[in-house]
Design goal:
The protein is of the alpha+beta class. Helices cover 39% and strands 18% of the residues.
Length: 506
């Protein structure tokens, strides 16, 4: 099924329905007197005349649609969609073709932007052109001037390609040729049915999903976005399948074979991050001797002053939902910055947290998310007194609940969490240290228009996490935060050693 691609405005919506007279007649009636004419409708360009046709509408226009077409059937998450089943007016095999118009209420009536799938397809295409077709671009503007290349990117992006992605593609392919050095005439595989990505994902999840707690996600083993394949792909697949046959085969045997294949250029998994004008390359889990660090004796120095939380209310009447950790890895000349916030900031009623570090400096890049369940497990292993559950339902969602909550309410934060974080040798960095003031800010921030039951909850969860970490000794904290950084990057350690080998362009 084609991806929903919102790009059709009013006129193009009507042009799309020329072959479907009954739908056209209905939409003319809807569009004629809509309160928001110019920017209140946008429809799916990829609709093929069958099944659902998705049309985003403003809140005002949704009221108008219901007035013209009736109540319809409420569908979709949060009841934000209304579906109407109509006869299209088209006939196939002597039968009328039914169509469902699905109107989706949205605060943003804007064109669909290229997502991860399109961006990675663009990378794969650029790599193929650079290596196998000997394209010698000297600048990113040369990609635009290369008619064949740019036209294909336009098809992939379903529209103009943003300059920042062209700049990234140029930097990525330069690093690929200079540092990764894949063999000539390699294939750059991305995804889709029958692809190598599809094959390796099914192979790993079928064999190791339960034993390694991968959660049904290939990236929990290896975050490669593109696989560079050189040689007979069927032979390579057979070789990898044979490596995991039997009851006693382990992920380490598969990883060992993939390391050898990477070094010889037969199979190279590459993780891609959007870059600036300069891109960088790093080999991950590709040590020749299979060495992996033990974070008990290889770790970063992380005092509690590296933990940050703010409480002053913003112009919105609430404080920011995130808390942060900044780690200076002086020996590696790197700085890692963790932003801990709601996994879905737009959620209503709460959202669990995500832990996502960025590497600062010349090679700034998002490093990936640290699986919070594994973070919580490691925390308790490091110190049995420290326990954090990533469950927003455990925390109060209103001021009234906060005041009376038996476990995670005002009493808990006033008497345990905040004293530990604002006083003594383990205090964090914050803009307010008076506990009464902080409690007042929390209560004031609840219920503001942008809170939606998520903002304050996320802050409380982040503070609770900080409190649990404050129970660690300095040595334990250094070990634990280093574990978090390695975990986010999918770098193997003695604690979690199942991550596969890959190269990273960032």
């Amino acid at each position: 099924m084609a991806k929903v691609w919102y790009s059709l405005g009013r006129d193009k919506i009507l042009n799309k329905t020329r072959s479907y007279p009954k739908i056209r007649e209905q939409l003319v009636e809807v569009l004629r007197n809509a309160p928001m004419k110019k920017a209140g409708f946008i429809a799916d360009k990829n609709w093929d005349g069958k099944g659902n046709w998705m049309i985003k509408v403003s809140e005002q226009n949704m009221v108008h649609v219901k007035k013209i077409m009736g109540a319809g059937k409420v569908t979709g998450p949060g009841g934000k969609e209304v579906t109407y089943e109509l006869a299209s007016g088209a006939v196939k095999a002597g039968k009328a073709v039914p169509v469902k118009l699905r109107f989706k209420k949205s605060s943003k009536i804007e064109r669909t932007k290229a997502g991860t799938e399109e961006q990675e397809k663009g990378s794969a295409y650029i790599f193929r052109r650079a290596l196998n077709d000997n394209r010698g671009w000297q600048t990113w503007e040369d990609i635009v001037a290369d008619v064949e290349t740019y036209d294909e990117l336009v098809k992939i992006f379903d529209g103009d390609v943003p300059d920042d992605w062209l700049i990234s593609y140029f930097a990525q392919q330069k690093v690929l040729l200079n540092e990764v050095k894949p063999l000539k005439f390699s294939e750059f595989d991305h995804s889709g049915k029958g692809s190598f990505m599809d094959f390796i994902t099914k192979l790993v999840l079928t064999k190791f999903n339960s034993s390694l707690s991968l959660g049904g996600k290939k990236d929990s083993w290896n975050p490669a976005d593109i696989w560079i394949i050189n040689g007979n792909q069927q032979n390579i697949r057979t070789e990898l399948e044979n490596s995991v046959k039997g009851s006693y085969q382990t992920i380490h045997e598969l990883n060992g074979i993939l390391r050898d294949m990477y070094r010889t250029g037969r199979v190279m998994g590459i993780s891609l991050k959007k870059t600036g004008k300069i891109a960088y390359y790093e080999k991950v889990n590709l040590n020749k001797d299979g060495f992996i660090p033990d974070t008990k004796n290889y770790n970063y120095d992380v005092p509690m002053s590296d933990f940050y939380a703010t409480f002053m209310l913003e112009n919105t009447g609430m404080f920011t939902q995130d808390v942060k950790i900044t780690v200076d890895a002086d020996a590696e000349n790197k700085t890692f910055a963790f932003q801990i916030k709601a996994n879905s900031s737009d959620a209503t009623g709460g959202s669990n947290l995500k832990f996502e570090p960025t590497m600062k400096g010349a090679a700034a890049a998002r490093l990936g998310k640290a699986p919070v369940e594994q973070v919580a497990t490691i925390l308790k292993e490091v110190n049995s007194q420290a326990e954090f559950k990533n469950d927003h339902k455990l925390y109060p969602k209103t001021t009234k609940e906060f005041e009376k909550h038996p476990k995670k309410g005002e009493e808990y934060f006033r008497n345990q969490v905040l004293p530990a974080l604002t006083r003594g040798t383990k205090k964090i960095t914050t803009d307010i240290t008076d506990i009464d003031d902080i409690i007042l800010q929390i209560k004031s921030s609840y219920g503001t228009k942008m809170d939606r039951g998520t903002n304050v909850k996320a802050k409380l969860m982040g503070l609770d996490f900080f409190y649990q970490v404050s129970k660690l000794t300095q040595a334990q904290r250094n070990e634990f935060i280093t574990d978090m950084i390695f975990l986010a990057q999918k770098k193997a350690t003695k604690k979690i050693d199942h991550f596969g080998p890959f190269g990273k362009i960032y």
